Amino acid sequence: MAFVTTKDGTDIFYKDWGPRDAQPIHFHHGWPLSADDWDNQMLFFLREGFRVVAHDRRGHGRSGQVSDGHDMDHYAADASAVAEHLDLRNAIHIGHSTGGGEVARYVAQYGQPQGRVARAALVSAVPPLMLRTDSNPDGAPIAVFDGFRAALAANRAQFFRDVPAGPFYGYNRPGAQPSQGVIDNWWRQGMMGSARAHYEGIKAFSETDQTADLKAIAVPTLVMQGDDDQVVPYRTAAMMQDKLLRNSQLIIYPGFSHGMLTVNADVLNADLLAFIRG
């Protein structure tokens, strides 16, 4: 197993597959999952000739279960530690959900200043801000995220069954055909990580205002969002593309869920490939 140790002593697990001289794609996973959530995409883009990299966020998966640093600043710094350790250049960074926030902060504060990033993709991503505020009236009320915290603290194992079996993949919709394997794999990834990291991570993905990060991104950026996403309102994607990102394109997928990168991987992989090669 491969690890890089960050400046604050946290061990970050990563996967690194493919030719070292190929263009790298660095994948950033969502809450409360791990690099394994990108296995479909990593195998697909490996076959297309790319070098593919993914890491487990601190406190998630196989990375160190540290007590502190469960915030977007540390997430981005940890991602940079992986990119610097592997000397990834001309890289495409793709983030799902919380990983989209990680990508936005990484690109703005590390990747662009270091000249390492070619493109970015934000998939069902949390920026610019999930929480409802006076300046963000379309956000979710704090009670929603307090409910997440209460459910996680009371019975994390059951909560991590209920989320993928319900809204995450749209399996609670009429006519949906749930995949028990997909549900079990979500639960497996979540339960590998630290309860503290997951609890503190709720604040990180819901209360971090990333407006400035998005405005700072200059590289071509693809925003991908399902219009039946029950976790991240699809209107936030339009806001990113219309008002905040200066060099972007937007794809809205009718009927797709928050977990579309898994259950609609064939569609998203083709669109990501077209964007990368475009």
From TrEMBL:
The keyword Hydrolase belongs to this UniProt entry's keyword annotation: yes
Alphabetized InterPro entries for the sequence: AB_hydrolase (IPR050471), AB_hydrolase_1 (IPR000073), AB_hydrolase_fold (IPR029058)
GO molecular function: hydrolase activity
Keyword Chaperone included in the entry's annotation: no
Gene3D superfamilies on file: alpha/beta hydrolase
Pfam family, one: Abhydrolase_1
Top-rank taxon: Bacteria
Location of the AB hydrolase-1 domain: 24-260
Keywords: Hydrolase
Protein name as annotated: Alpha/beta fold hydrolase
Protein source organism: Camelimonas fluminis
